[in-house]
Design a protein that fits this description.
- The chain is mainly α.
- It has one domain.
- Helices cover 86% and strands 0% of the residues.
- The protein contains six helices and no strands.
- Helix 5 packs antiparallel against helix 6.
- The longest helix is centred in the middle third of the chain and has 56 residues.
- The protein is elongated.
- The protein starts with a helix and ends with a helix.
Amino acid sequence: MDGGCKAYDDYFDRVLRPPQIQKFDNHIEEAQGSTFALEYQPKTLRASKFRRRLNHEQRLVELVRENSSYRRELRFFRVVFEAMEEMQRQVSSTAQQLVLNHYLDTVQPDDRWLIVADELNTMVQRYGAIVDYAAKDWVEVTEQQHSAQAANKI
């Protein structure tokens, strides 16, 4: 999960906050060298206001498209998450029924009910641990994004 957060931070640093060209960047450019800030800033961006405006509009359109694609992904994964929670409840109740079947079958108790119930219960516990970790990570990433947005507004 940390890999996704790092990728977001890299994207945020490169796209949403482009590096500023400093004095030493200009000196390096005069010496026909290159730095990350110089490579990132296209010549047209510094050429004229008209071109800068077009580039800014293109960037806004690109960001809106990315935002809508992220919203679609969120809708999809939210539905998947809710379906998995429902499945978790049903598997838990099935495991309980298997245990009851073992103890209610007084004629010939079968241990396979207990084995299957134990396997199902282990799967549900693993899934619950994964969901808890994902939820904590989601909250952490959301808080980081909100704090970054608040810092940008100031």
